[in-house]
Structures
1.
Amino acid sequence: MADPAQSTPRISGVRSFARREHTRDLNGVNAAIAGIPFDTGASYRTGARFGPEAIRSASVLLREWDPVLEVATLEDLRIVDWGDVGLTPGDAELAVSQIAEQLAPIAESGAVPLGLGGDHLVALGELRALAATAGPLGLILLDSHADTWDAYMGQRFFHGTPFKRAVEEGLIDPSRSLLAGMRGPSYSAADLEDARALGFEVLPYPELAAGGADAYGELARERAGDGPCFLSFDIDFVDPAFAPATGTPEVGGPSSAEALGYVRSLRDIDFRGFDVVEVSPPYDGPGQVTSLLAANVAYTMLGLLALRRRG
């Protein structure tokens, strides 16, 4: 698809992701962008239901050629904006089922879904849809929290529990998974130890930063092996100085440039799905820096897909 910006200015037109075609026709599609406007699972700041809209608006600045990955992402892949999942606000458990049901056709078509959240609970619905066709997936997670709690104030379906539920449901294989970026105050030392007890490799942010992006990429490939994987990026992985608009900000994280470097390091992994979650636009500044970063994270994920297809 030719760059629409060459015929009409970016300030015009309907806001689809990177100005790709908005359609649910999946014939010949490599990747489908799906908005998941849901934040009933949030425990602190809400607003992530407006994340897909804001990320799409910021994505008009994306262009065909990625000069760092050296791939023509938007040219080499047939990418469409599939639109938004229809959800029932206020019922977290029902919403997870709705996400899984509506994303199933994308997974079944062979296209790779890229979800725009939405709070992190949406990942459970995405994983249900993907695992139904691909089997258990390895989880590669960049996040300041492991999201493997069992419950919060009696609620088993909220944005801190999706990966505990996913393990229980057999959707992910912890032995092929890597959770990285965890930092900040926690309720107890058990928070990360419980994730390890489930079989996850956990790389707290101080260790991630000490090793750098190249070492992280090598570890992720070693954990993932040759099997299908899912890459989930919680925007609170990034320091709130660079990405303030999120539900549970944690200081002391990577810059925007460093965060993109960690995503770029994940080459040669068989990703069957991606998401970028927890963007809460009401907390962004007038420059929309969080949404801009989220759009570029999503673009970089698509670049990884384009590189793998080319290779």
2.
Amino acid sequence: MLGSMTQSSTMKVADSPDGEFYMKIKEVIPLVRPEDLVVSGWDINSMDLANAMKRAQVFDYELQQKLEPYMKEFKPLKSIYYPDFIAANQEDRADNILEGNDKLLHLDQIRQDIASFKKNNDLNTVIILWTANTERFALEIAGVNDTYENLMKSIKENHPEIAPSTIFALAALQENCTFINGSPQNTFVKGIRDAPFSSLLIGNDFKTGQTKFKTSFIDFLTSAGIKPKSCVSYNHLGNNDGKNLASEKQFKSKETSKSECIKDLLDNSLLYDPRHPEEYPDHTVVIKYVPNAGDSKKAIDEYSSEIFMGGEHTFVSYNVCEDSLLAAGIIIDLIILSELMTRISFKRSQDDWRSLEGVCSFLGYLTKAPESKGPIINSLPRQRACIENLIRVLVGLPLEDNLLLGYRL
């Protein structure tokens, strides 16, 4: 599966007299196979997946014909639609929604859907993945969503600042399911992060192409002592995601996740003084909806930097790709690796075994704005090394230091 770290890439596992030895990541540690996943879901639009596939116009016609008999069996469950949280241009798609505005009733229904899906398919683990429209940021208000108790009270009172994605995240927690937020909005308000449940929270926003490149390239510049002065990212796309982002409130959510992804790289260099934010590079993100582009997102990035003796270095990249197909591998990796996280236990003392719970930062490699209880790390090489080193620890391999001392003795 191209585009998937777990399925199509390798990691070093040993040195030998003949050189380094690599293995497929999926063979180093037992992982769930993509073909063993059972899939269902919700959508505000009632179209079955066969017709949705035709509407999206991502797959070639011949492939659509082959997949249609299998895809038409999948019809989405009714979802939550609070118009204030997504663009008004989505209203004509909203024909498959839970009735009324009783948010507690909606929460209970989503929980019932999860429980029924798990029971009917005899599943060990259920993972909820948000791939729906980008929402506007929810206001984080004291007394409303700042504690779990206040969040539940606000849901019972149908408070307008409770977002659909937050309802889904809470339902996942209450049903002991991992929740992955694949969009940039602040789904994990404090009341969610502090909820008294042992499930995992992973987010935010799939990190596919442009942001992966940006976090690796800015890391290269600052590590080399080159001083970025401006970073300008322009995007245009024509799918429904682009249509939703044409709304200013929803665009602001995406702008935040794209803009914040290099801040720690700049803070941790010697090139800027955090006390003088005006010295930081101009960082601009532009997203435009161009229907003719379809699912092919087109991205232009310009990086201008200061080099030795006041010289200037400018680097420009142009990227074109099917947005959905690039995200597919990321989605598979998030599901497979988050399932692995549910099987990990650790102990601080002899008999104090416990599972991972709460915000899980190990998978920052796959998200633009990784949630973390500790420092935020956006350097792409460090994020990749985090996953590899975790796997090494789990199978008893030494951490990779790249010193190659074995060849010097």
3.
Amino acid sequence: MSEPGADRTGTLAPLVRDYLVLGLRLGRHVDGFVDCWFGDRAISARVAAEPPVSPLVLAAQARRLGAELAEAELDESRRRFLAAQLTAMAATADRLAGRERSFVVEVQDYFDVHIVLGDPDRYACLHDTMAELLPGPGDLGARLEAFYDRNAIPPDKLARAVRAVSDELRARARSLFGLPPSERVDYEVVRDRPWNAFNTYLGDFRSKVALNAESGRAIAALPTMVTHESYPGHHTDHCLKEAGLVRERGHDEQLISLVNTPQCLIAEGAGELAVAAILGEGWGAWTAEILSAEGIRSDGELVERVLAVFAQLLPARQDAAILLHDRGADPDEVLAFLRRWLLLPPDRAEHMMSFLTDPLWRAYTVTYIEGARLVRAWLGARPAGQPVADRYLALLREPVLPSDLQADLQDRVEVHPRERGPH
């Protein structure tokens, strides 16, 4: 068993070492592309000291490594994982080099999924459902804003509330998923970020989670945030992969996590479904009870019901990205689209646009939408009698790809042709 952070240069398979170096070199061009790195400090120090490598050269290196995989002494699951990752990395390098492609093709190369526009008629029906949950006169968007205002947690109470929820979820996650005894998450509240929350995995089973104080429209739904970022989401995912894949099985490619790769789509999809894996129905009332002990009021059951409907509207974010980047829509049109279907006030729509137009994050919304869609279907297709948590655990322990889940779902349809999909 080897410890992260030590100089293990001589123990890495050559192709895996080249893959890690390629990821770090791409990170020199795009701040934030390396989501986490807990590998050999000697490697990252050498990359940091060298002159930046041309994106054209990096694209060629990614394709060369992909071609060499067939001869690599790695098991099939590792070769498939690395092939998908290298395809995504080549696409990133191409874009850095000015080689443009359609947004839909870019997304396919990044995330191993194909995206299409959603159905506005479905969004309209969901608006009707939301109106039933939030009755009263006036604009539905204004009623939703008032609901969020009633359930918002002030920034000065956010860290304490998150810690209270996190401590409870940590105990559950340890029981269900077998976390290492030394694992730890530290939280901090930040401002002026394009995201709601962000996990930075530090290695040695430790994470730092930043919470955006300005994002708090639905902040009272703390389990959806803490489960996504920590228990049993990103932090738990990294811990179990470090413990099992890296330390026990030598899958050193897991020492790095890279934005805009299939690895991220599975991680974000699992994060979106983490609340179902650890709490299931009733998490709203569960949260309200914890927050009440902290002197914070929440409409727990209603929060859960409203957010369940709102989650079904979120594909409109992906539609907005397609309209903006693939259909030539004017930014003002896209803002109006977001405001209409996601019931957003102007400032929230502009905040969302900042994510969709950020050079690094513009395609990333796909990971939440398609990742959640795919993971939800796969969890729903579990064998009869299998707990959701047991099915979910496979996502945390193995180097799963979107195409793996898609193939598994297709096999199930072929074996059970009369079934209408997962429940």
4.
Amino acid sequence: MDKKEMKLKPTPLMLNFYKSPMSGEQIEAESLRTIHREAPDHGFTTAQWQVVQRMIHTTADFTLIGDVRFSPNAVLAAVDALRAGRPLYVDSNMIRSGISVPRLQSVNSSYGPDSIACYVADGEVAGDALAAGMPRSIFAVRKAKPILDGAIVLFGNAPIGLLELNRLIIEENIRPALVVAMPVGFVHVVESKQELMSLDVPFIALAGRRGGSTLAVSVVHALCSLAASVEHERSTAPAEKRYRNRGKNTADVLGPYRERGTAECPKETIILLGHGSRVPDAGKDMAQVAKGLRENYGYPMVEICFMSRLGPHFPEVLEKCVNQGALNVVVIPYFLHMGLHILLDIPEMLQEEALKYPHVKLTFGRGFGFDDLMVDIIHRRIQEASELGDVRDLVLPPKEKYPIPHGQCEFVPMRPDEAAKYRG
């Protein structure tokens, strides 16, 4: 090899690593810091974020943030089940191999390899499936039925198996402690997850077609870390503190891991719904009200939207809230009087949108109507009017600045005689 060829030889990037080596633990910690840095406004609770963060760490896919769903108390239910040493049922041997038994044992020392059940390769299950001409996942779930009550159940591969579990929940009142619903694929995947999320069982689900064994495993490992942190807090606390904690359930000890929507943290997601306007800044006052609700009353999520014109509109804002983990949404109509919008238009729209999210409670609040505070507000406006000039001196913006969209019309008042026909 001549000198010219030697100059062209690249320098291995590994040499840079040798100069600043990192352990596996340090690499993982830096990865988690990167995830938190790149997704600061994720919208999840502290406990939920630990689960989602682990899923992102497994896939390097930040778009998962928009599709992960938690039922109320899902994390707390899982932590209690792990601490109690409840069995796990998984839909594939890949998940069974991926789950770390030492991690399970860090929560409860009774865990062992036999604590994780998977029957998809069972001979009896294979024979029943062949005879019926149906997937083995159905018969694997049926074989697991004796252990499903109170168990942690994981699906990363078999949507048909999830559908069978849903049937057992509906028809036979099977109640797992938690269902991790993350089957991947194209056939019966979406509806299997949607059906589960409509049932009264704790779940952590990944909406849509995505999923897989590695994601299901990452959820279990994140839950183990949360459960182990509870045990660590109890074991390292001073004797006086341990005595005070004696008899308390996990929800009392988790503290910052409490989930939005639970009895311990009942704050709702709030959506202020206004009429809408062709004026771009017409909603800035609503935005200030939303900010005040967040800052003064501690609501974790307050959004504004409009029925018409420039938006943002209610369907897109509701979808955003649900994607960020909202489970209890209260819609407050930003309207002064009880008109047709309040009586019919808005409730009809809310009912239509609610069908898309069966696991979310959607409540329609009252409009402003009459309140003693309104008298004070009007009195203040009257006082302010004394400092204003004559209406003849107002300089109006040109109408061309706010054109009427094609096919729509400007506001047209009714004539008195016409209006009289519609009055009670």
